[in-house]
């Protein structure tokens, strides 16, 4: 038997060994090719333990259906070829590629890949599968993603999380929701992505800078939220999850029902809903007043898949109301000083479920229609998406205006994609496509405030090409894309007079990657990519103070002495462009697995807010920040390792290291996540799927933080007519980075069969020691501690 | 392939649509000018001083149009007027002092001055540092709010018998929704106004 190697990155699943009397709905799909890359027909594919199997069709494809979630040993046999047994898992949109070697062949190693939807080529990615998502049930998307090394978050209190990949976030991270670019008001640091993680079957985080198929903005990476594939035969399946949490007294319920249609093979449908609510969260020593959450989500989809044709329609709605910590509502520098020095924060009251100002109301609707045809000349895919995003932010205002939003934005986006893919007989794959987007952003009138960002229409799009080449020991992929983006802007300046602008940007993105097995147990993956992003109008034109920030922000195109709006041709503006190199090394042994990712991301013309000076207006003294450009460099490493100490005990560890700098000015950037380390020991009893897992997480202090100029120093400077920023344009922060901290948690779970399905129970205590701490990337670290102990109990029923 | 090429003219067609001008917002919260009118009780000329912020949220600093020059041994009633200069006079939202008066139960002006002897009444240095220090919330219909608590759109001041004195005079307007009480002070709530003028008694 020739040596074989498989490359496997579905994470660490417990295996569900229970086989219910009623059929389960999972499947394993794949393609079998020979060593020349030709699809192999009539290969016998068998799951030995189940006496279930399939036979490959004329394209070499097979599907084994009606499986329970888990991993199986699958045997491949064909006359004249060496039989193989490979461990494959269900879940998500995986399709495996198996290469068989003829008995007289000389191929030393056989590679098994996984092909995921929306994975363009050889990319560095990590996947959160169903099991891991269940263990984070009840949390917001940004909080769920923090489990992945290299991924952290920017928080605005305990309810708002924005994912950060390798140090970059917001406009530099692309989120694909069911294959559609998520278009909300991503420019805001307190605008969390409007996605319900309960709807996902798996979430992929791609760490390369590119999204050749999806356009601009993916300078840090891409987050792909994938649903499970639709059923295509009659039968009913579903799940119901309930999660309760002590901190915030939160309750969440999520249910999903799916099935086929009798006498209509190929048809499937699914409906899904989530409701979530919490009151004020609690730091160890005091309540965090006005941090409650309300959320209500719903989705429905139906589709037809049979043979060479498939079509689907999907609709989802996400709706939330979020409170903003009462003690963070500051108006000027004096207020900020008071808020920073006062603990508990101003306005702290006892626990309540009430949401008062300041708060946010957001809703997001998504409608998606797609179809695909597989033909001898290649496969065709076409997809249309419609999104509407409504965001209203309420502040504490004078004159009874608190009930009227201070920011009221409506964003409508249409996207259209067309793609053609061809597999050659030599095992290569070529994809050509194009996509376009039309977007309209409106300030809904009636806010009685000069809008923070202008109205605009955005038209963008472009063609792309990707090639995946199967070259002996190497699998190589290369891709390129051209994008154009046009903004048609109309807004009101500081004098409340109209201005307009017509902006045009265009550029090229490229990616090149390769994967090579090294010996029986190791793989090396490399990717070099370049991505660019056009500026957002918020970076060019915003003017004013933002929710809970005692500092004024000025856009790039505002004249620095007259505040007038300037033309982009009059300033030395260049689009942001990232050059990212990522290397991943994987070792998959029987007892020990480790994955190491090293990366370097050089972002030219990086747009950020730089402190520029101090101004005095009727409300008092304000430091002000201006959007400017520099070159930034992000270097880091993500390591995750696991060791099977015994048949029942697994020790796992994760490390995320990041060093970011303002390369041009030899300075530090603000709000960059610090280094974090995690160690967990899991004891699993295989019989009833019972596990216990204590875990310790250590987050170090961010030593690479900008200089500190306290509010008192600024006030003293202004009083003495001395420039409080001491004439230097170096970045600064009002407060030093908080100390490092360690959090301990304990989780336990058990899976029990019941009738047609099973119950998964889970209990966890997070921040078990009720440690008081502040997280550097939480924008509320100026005002309050982070949350204290949280006891979580969840039940999931799956059938 | 042809369908890919036919795709782009569709986008160009859509691009041809022109943009309509969005509705202009009223801006009732924007205070661009604060005018202090010291009206002497009895005979005499009013002393009027304004601080104007020429560009609202913009970078230019606020500037007073002169010092407050008061006469010794005189009692004045100080009335504060808040104006939004972006709106034409007479239009809604021009005079913001009215909003503050209507929401008196959520607002309070606090005062302080650098020379503790410049006024014979009130004594001391003002109530920004300590809410219990004396300030005369009397002299006009909006000296106090609807609950009888101090508001300060009108206040009464008596300068000392003879000068000279040079110093500063500071006023702070706090917005204290659900926070104003019998004990709330200048540290409570959000600051809507914080101005310092030069105060002279020749």
Q: Could you explain the architecture of this structure?
A:
The complex is a heterodimer of chains A (799) and B (202). Chain A is mainly beta and 799 residues long. Chain A folds into two domains: 5-115, Sandwich (Immunoglobulin-like); 225-798, Maltoporin, Chain A, CATH 2.40.170.20. Chain A is 4% helix and 54% strand. Chain A has five helices and 45 strands. In chain A, the strands form seven sheets. Chain A has a 22-stranded antiparallel beta barrel. The longest helix of chain A is centred in the middle third of the chain and has 9 residues, at 333-341. Chain A is globular. Residues 1-23 and 105-117 of chain A have low confidence and may be disordered. Chain B is globular. Chain B has helices at 2-15, 97-102; strands spanning 33-40, 47-52, 63-64, 68-69, 75-83, 107-113, 119-121, 154-159, 165-175, 190-201. Chain B has one domain (26-201). Chain B contains two helices and ten strands, in the order H-E-E-E-E-E-H-E-E-E-E-E. The relative contact order of chain B is 0.19. With 202 residues, chain B is mainly β. The termini of chain B are far apart. The model of chain B has no long low-confidence stretch (mean pLDDT 84).
């Amino acid at each position: 038997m020739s040596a074989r190697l498989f490359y496997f990155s579905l994470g660490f699943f417990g295996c569900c060994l229970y086989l219910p009397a009623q059929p389960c709905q999972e499947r394993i799909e794949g393609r079998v090719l020979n060593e020349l890359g030709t699809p192999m027909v009539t290969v016998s594919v068998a799951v030995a333990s189940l006496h279930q199997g399939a036979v490959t069709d004329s394209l070499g494809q097979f599907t084994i259906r009606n499986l329970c979630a888990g991993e199986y040993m699958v045997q491949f046999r064909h006359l004249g070829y060496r039989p193989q047994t490979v461990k494959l898992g269900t879940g998500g949109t995986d399709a495996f590629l198996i290469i068989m070697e003829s008995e007289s062949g000389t191929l030393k190693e056989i590679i098994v890949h996984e092909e995921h939807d929306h994975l363009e080529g050889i990319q560095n990615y990590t996947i959160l599968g169903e099991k891991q998502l269940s263990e984070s049930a009840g949390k917001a998307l940004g909080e769920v993603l923090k489990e992945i090394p290299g991924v952290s978050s920017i928080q605005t209190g305990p309810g708002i999380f924005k994912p950060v990949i390798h140090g970059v976030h917001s406009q530099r991270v692309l989120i694909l929701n069911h294959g559609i670019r998520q278009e909300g008001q991503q420019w805001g640091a307190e605008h969390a992505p409007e996605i319900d993680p309960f709807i996902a079957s798996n979430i992929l985080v791609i760490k390369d800078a590119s999204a050749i198929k999806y356009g601009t903005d993916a300078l840090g990476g891409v987050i792909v939220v994938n649903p499970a594939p639709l059923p295509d035969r009659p039968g009913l399946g579903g799940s119901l999850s309930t999660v309760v949490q002590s901190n915030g007294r939160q309750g969440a319920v999520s249910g999903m029902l799916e099935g086929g249609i009798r006498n209509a093979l190929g048809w499937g449908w699914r409906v899904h809903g989530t409701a979530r609510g919490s009151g004020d969260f609690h730091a160890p020593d005091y309540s965090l007043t006005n941090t409650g959450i309300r959320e209500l989500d719903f989705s429905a989809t139906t589709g037809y898949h049979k043979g060479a044709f498939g079509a689907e329609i999907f609709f989802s709605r996400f709706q939330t109301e979020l409170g903003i910590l009462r003690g963070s509502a500051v108006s000027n520098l004096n207020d900020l000083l008071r808020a920073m020095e006062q603990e508990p924060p101003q306005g702290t009251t006892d626990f309540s479920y009430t949401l008062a100002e300041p708060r946010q109301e957001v809703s997001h609707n998504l409608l998606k229609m797609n179809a695909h045809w597989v033909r001898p000349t290649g496969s065709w895919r076409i997809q249309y998406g419609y999104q509407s995003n409504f965001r209203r932010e309420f502040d504490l205002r004078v004159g009874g205006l608190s009930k009227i939003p201070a920011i009221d934005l409506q964003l409508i986006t249409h996207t259209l994609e067309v793609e053609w893919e061809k597999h050659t007989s030599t095992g290569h794959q070529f994809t050509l496509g194009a996509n376009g987007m039309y977007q309209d952003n409106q300030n809904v009138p009636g806010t009685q405030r000069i809008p923070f960002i202008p109205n605009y229409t955005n038209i963008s799009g472009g063609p792309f090409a990707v090639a995946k080449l199967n070259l002996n020991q190497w699998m190589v992929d290369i891709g390129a894309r051209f994008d154009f983006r046009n903004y048609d802007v109309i807004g009101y300046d500081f004098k409340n007079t109209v201005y307009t602008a017509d902006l045009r940007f265009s550029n090229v993105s490229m990616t090149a990657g390769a994967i090579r097995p090294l010996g029986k147990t190791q793989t090396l993956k490399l990717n070099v990519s370049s991505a660019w992003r056009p500026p957002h109008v918020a970076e060019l034109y915003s003017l004013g103070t933002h929710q809970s920030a005692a500092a004024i922000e000025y856009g790039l195109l505002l004249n620095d002495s007259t505040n007038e709006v300037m033309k982009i041709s009059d300033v030395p503006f260049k689009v942001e462009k990232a050059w990212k190199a990522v290397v991943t090394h994987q070792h998959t042994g029987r007892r020990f697995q480790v994955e190491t990712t090293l990366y370097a991301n050089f972002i030219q013309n990086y747009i950020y807010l730089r402190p520029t000076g101090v101004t005095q207006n009727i409300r008092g003294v304000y430091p002000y920040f201006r959007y400017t450009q520099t070159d930034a460099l992000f270097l880091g490493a993500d390591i995750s390792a696991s060791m099977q100490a015994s048949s029942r005990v697994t020790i796992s560890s994760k490390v995320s290291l990041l060093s970011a700098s303002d390369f041009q000015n030899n300075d530090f950037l603000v709000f960059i996540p610090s280094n974090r380390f995690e160690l967990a020991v899991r004891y699993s009893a295989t019989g009833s799927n019972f596990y216990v897992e204590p875990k310790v997480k250590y987050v170090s202090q961010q030593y690479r933080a900008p200089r500190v100029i306290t509010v008192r120093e600024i006030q003293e400077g202004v009083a003495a007519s001395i420039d409080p920023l001491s004439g230097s344009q170096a970045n600064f922060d009002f407060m030093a980075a908080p100390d490092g901290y360690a959090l301990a948690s304990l989780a336990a779970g058990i899976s029990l069969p019941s009738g047609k399905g099973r119950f998964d129970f889970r209990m966890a205590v997070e921040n078990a020691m009720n440690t008081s701490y502040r997280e550097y990337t939480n924008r509320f670290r100026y005002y309050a501690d982070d949350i204290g102990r949280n006891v979580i109990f969840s039940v999931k029923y799956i059938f | 392939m042809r369908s890919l090429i036919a795709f782009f003219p569709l986008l160009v067609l859509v691009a041809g649509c022109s943009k309509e001008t969005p509705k202009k917002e009223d801006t009732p919260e924007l205070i661009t000018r604060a005018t202090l009118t010291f009206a002497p009780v009895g005979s005499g000329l009013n002393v009027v001083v304004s601080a104007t912020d020429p560009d609202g949220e913009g970078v230019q600093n606020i500037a007073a149009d002169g010092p407050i020059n008061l006469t010794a041994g005189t009692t004045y009633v100080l009335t504060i007027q808040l104006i939004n200069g972006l709106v034409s006079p007479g239009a809604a939202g021009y005079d913001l002092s009215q909003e503050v008066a209507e929401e008196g139960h959520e607002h309070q002006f606090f005062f302080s001055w650098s020379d503790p002897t410049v006024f014979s009444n009130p004594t001391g240095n003002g109530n920004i540092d300590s809410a219990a220090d004396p300030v005369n919330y009397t002299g006009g219909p909006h000296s106090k709010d609807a609950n009888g608590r101090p508001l300060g759109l009108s206040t009464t001041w008596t300068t000392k018998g003879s000068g000279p004195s040079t110093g500063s005079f500071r006023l702070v307007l706090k917005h204290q929704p659900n926070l104003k009480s019998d004990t709330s002070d200048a540290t409570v709530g959000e600051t809507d106004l914080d101005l310092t003028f030069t105060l002279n008694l020749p």
